[in-house]
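Budget justification note: compute hours in this period were largely spent on complex prediction jobs such as the one shown. Inputs:
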Amino acid sequence: MSLTTPGPTVGVVGGGQLARMLGEAAGPLGVEVVALDPTPDPPAAPVVRDTVAADFDDESAVLALAERVDVLTYEIELADADALERVGEETGTPVHPDPGTLRRTQDKLAEKRWLADAGVPVPEFRAVENAADLRAAGEDLGWPVMLKAREGGYDGRGNLPVTGPDEAAAALDELGADALAEAMVPFERELSVIGVRGADGERATYPVTETVHEDEILRESVQPARTSDTVAERAREVATDVLDAMDGRGVFGIELFECASRSDAGVSSGERSDPRAGSEILVNEIAPRPHNSGHWTIEGAHCSQFEQHARSVLGWPLGSTERRGASVTTNLLGDVEETGPAELSGVETVLGAADAHLHWYGKREARPLRKMGHVTVVGEGSEATLDRARELRESVTFR
Amino acid sequence: MSLTTPGPTVGVVGGGQLARMLGEAAGPLGVEVVALDPTPDPPAAPVVRDTVAADFDDESAVLALAERVDVLTYEIELADADALERVGEETGTPVHPDPGTLRRTQDKLAEKRWLADAGVPVPEFRAVENAADLRAAGEDLGWPVMLKAREGGYDGRGNLPVTGPDEAAAALDELGADALAEAMVPFERELSVIGVRGADGERATYPVTETVHEDEILRESVQPARTSDTVAERAREVATDVLDAMDGRGVFGIELFECASRSDAGVSSGERSDPRAGSEILVNEIAPRPHNSGHWTIEGAHCSQFEQHARSVLGWPLGSTERRGASVTTNLLGDVEETGPAELSGVETVLGAADAHLHWYGKREARPLRKMGHVTVVGEGSEATLDRARELRESVTFR
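Corresponding output:
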């Protein structure tokens, strides 16, 4: 294959921090990025070739974008799968990951059914359309259950624990949406695997990451994960099974639960002979795009998830997913009570730390718990690196 | 200090590969870049906020650039030091590195005099205005001497070895410019140190790099340099002396000769008690900007020379110059006989190599020996990494 100038152009639906980091990674490859986003001057703008101001589901804008790029991708689940599919067919522009995968991951029930059908271990779940369904699910799975909106949830929004049958009606009212109920998973820790599908069936996974959440929002990604080699290996196996169930190319964030044992986990499988029976790993959710839990790969792996995404959607050879050492990413969340102009103070500590790498997303407003940037600390071991990352994160504030 | 959105903007005179890599490094810091270059759609364009089409010495364009940025810098020695100085004074926009430093490094005679006056070891040299001067220099320094044009030389252009007095007149005719003559330095190897001056007198040096030239054009940068610890340490000392002789902030490429011994080297110093007397290191040239010999820092050091340059010109804390491991950068030069469209074939070998990082500069035309990109290979030791880099470079071609 050849490199030329200009190189290929990737069109991205969404111009947030993921598009920004995709742009940062694409430059060295000679790949150009054009991002579509309704926000004027979105985070990606200063580092990409161009931005297009349009709603994510503005099909004529997506069509115009397709006509000036070599491949279409998306960095946000709000992308319109149907529009992408039609535009891809109409213009002949490849769309990766496959819009069908996007559609499935937009509906948590469809996603779970698809994974279970593909033999991927997931927590037991039931479709819930009304309070009777929810009560029956609780009886079946055991109380409490996790009630999840089928669509639109992220960072814990749209998730509601329900402790018993008396709460069913009120919980459904509060959620106000089609839902599913999941068995509560008594997990030891949460893990994530960034996986990638390339051309000609090539696929690869990064080493498993330990993810630390608080109020269901990702705070820290720890690499290597503080778990056993067996579990780490099993996590990559399960992630590979997920990749095998996909169509098309691209990078995927695969969120996992590590459970103490099969019997605690409520795996949706009946037979004892099921190969998943010994599994300690369950798949929680899949993001058909680079994922917050893979930001450590920028400094911590040979090829970052963003470079990998550019390579994969273009059908180029994949890069190495090998780790370069220990690394911890800590999110810089809006630690504010109210929305206000983005101003992070105390950054001299991060900039002055030899082992820290600052990533600022270029968002104009800090909002409570909004992802404003991240810091990746590289080091020798997970524990010390995590301590260091926490120390640095505590030295900065938006207040 | 605080980070905001939008962050500070750096205006760069020059929009070539150095501005491109500056843009790639600035993004994560929330720093924006605007580049001025006469070429339409220069290499930096796809990855920076904006480009301005104007000649490097178009003072009104530089003035307009100054008015929209927080600090002015330059990535090419063709920048106009006088214009930058006047614009800086007129608009109050800081210019880094200091235009006086740029002016001095644009004139090789002035540069050598300034370094020698500052006590920095350099090869012995004489000003040459006519053939008589050149013959006298040869008598003084010993034949052969290296005749160098005072201005405009780079990548070996403007350098001419002169073997004896009979050639003096013809050599000066061929050079056709004001010149200096330098003692030929029988160096063991060429080295380079990337140095940086920050705010409040902060300064730092990267570990010394071994540079491999062919026909006076840099081919490979080897890290760590294959030299003794004593020499490596002395190189950083000398580079620090150079930094101390500077004004203003920024990143500097400091090219060095490693000589077998003092007596061979023709150091421009008279007294035996001179602290330079034992030196095996001589300064060859200084570039007041990030330098080709520092591209390894992108993957090979904690903070790249480009991030470092952004930090330093903004007066931010400097980043760590520590090495992350061995790395070798090999330049992708135009291996063509004639100018033609840039098309590098065989890149699947580089993209498929786990240890290789491709950097494409986005130049539209390949010209003989033009710098079109580079590949940095990271590894365990200099020798094996260099072998690997050569192997990969030989697998690609513009022909």
